[in-house]
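Hey,
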Amino acid sequence: MAASFTAAGYAVAPFGEPCDVCVVHSCAVTHQAELDSLRLARRARRDQPGAVVVLAGCLAQYAQRRLAPGEAADLLVPQKDKLRIPVLLHELAPGQFPLPPPTEPAPTPAFETTRALVKAQDGCDFRCAYCVVPDARGPAASRPLEQVVAEARRLADAGFREVVVTGANVGCYRDGTRGLVDLLRAVEAADGIARVRIGSIELSTVEREIIDWMALSPKLCHFLHLPLQSGDDRILRAMGRRYTRDEYRRAAEYAAERVPRLGLGADVIVGFPGEDEAAFGRTVELVEALPFSNLHVFPFSPRPDTPAAALPGAVPAAVRKERVRRLLGLEKAKREAFAHGFVGRDVQVLVERLDARGAGRGWTGEYVEACVTGPGVAVNALLTMRATAATGSTVHAAAGV
């Protein structure tokens, strides 16, 4: 979105500074995300009375029937139109906003980090009982492979060393007979791309093929995010998930066997309707048993118009909060143990920033936070160094060691 404004002749200003247009890129995945998006839009209207406030993205599409005209913003822009905001502003107020010139190809995205995101796919057809993505982003759709690779090349030309291939359900990527592994091979072949990272992969899609390619690829980062959501089969069925506890366990163990020192992440929803202490205990048991290095833990958030919102057996908020706390405690211990396992080994770190002491801060390919020192440490440097220590979940490495 920022790149589309720049291409149309606008200057991008930090949030909160005087502006003509204020865009809030919204999220609807949880009730709290929705509240935060609306709060930011209302704050923009209060602090920037002369600006046109735009609410873009998932919430603008998912909740547009529930939002009165002008209630949250001057302009609601659903997911499919969010790269056309300069054009929509001209249609809203042609005397105030000029018609932007056509751009072909689309502007290269602008990022403030040293990693760049390349969206290969959007939308989802899975219809999990708790999820609004199918309504907020529509059915699954993939970009042509050549278009994705061309964008990756432009990002490499702009200086990005690492790209993250992502999508709402990127494991469903298809371009004719070509799937996600074909896309990853093509992106990795682009000149200037040193590392490729893959977004979250749903079980029952192409997880085995991705794992096998990860074991062979010289550029694909050794980090795999496999959403779990629950370790109890009854809850998984109620959620509408497409795998069992044992199928998940076998996939995670296969990944750890094929890719040594794999970073393994997952999403977990606690307090889903009907989740009793025994069901939660089975989730804890599975998390303890598998080699996770990273977990995203969410309390269940009922979303309007989803099947889960009408399910009986609601779990009290206090219980949900306590279960989140327990799982996050387990996640912290696993994340720290995983980081300490790299001491004495070489790690590859992409430096994203320099701290106040001049040390480089970034991430290893396994998605471990790193602090690096020594000659050659600079923003956007990709360094292979020996990890000498770890504090908490951060590894420390130095050049020449």
